[in-house]
Amino acid sequence: MPVQIIMTEGLASKVEAQKAHAEISQVFLDLHQISNNSFMLPNIIGEVVFVEEGLTFSGKATSSIAIVELRVPSFTFGTQQQKDEFVQKATDIILRATSGKLSKEHVWVNAVYAVDGLWGIAGKAYSNEELGQAIQTAAAI
To answer: InterPro entries recorded for this chain (predicted)?
Structure first.
């Protein structure tokens, strides 16, 4: 499940950004109780993208920002409580990573849901049902 962090350059060091990505990935795994799932763990992937200062915007004006975006199957985050907790924890992680250079009003968190049957891993297009079964039957590592 791709985890992408997009932020204005200069808000966090490369090391802090790497740490934030790992922590946000762990929050996702923990919320779904799949932290040691041998199918899921290698499929938590992603990137941190630094955007040149002056090329990030809020309210039509240049502004320092951070965006956390997940691309996940449509059955992910089955409860509002999971959504609330993920957004709060991801925001807190970004705020720590940026060491006070960013206010929480300039952190956005969202999820983009994949179309059922179009979640591709290792050349196989999984349906939601197949993906759920693969996760449930995977042995913990």
So the answer is: Tautomerase/MIF_sf (IPR014347)
Q: How many CB atoms lie within 10 A of CB 90?
A: 25
Looking up tokens 């891993």, which residue turns up?
121
* Nearest alpha carbon to residue 135 among 119, 115, 123: 119
Domains of the chain listed by start with CATH number: 3-137 (3.30.429.10)
Torsion angle of the four alpha carbons 59, 62, 63, 69, in this order, in degrees rounded to the nearest 10: 70
> pLDDT tens digits for 47-70?
999 999 999 999 999 999 999 999
Which residue type occupies 135?
I
Judged by DSSP in three states, 14 sits in helix
Supply φ then ψ for residue 25, to 5 degrees: -60, -40
- Rounded Cα gap, residues 104 and 107, in angstroms: 5
pLDDT over 90, % of the chain: 83
Helix (H, G, I), strand (E, B) or coil at 100: coil
Q: Which two tokens stand for residue 120?
A: 């591709």
What pTM was estimated for this model as a whole? 0.93
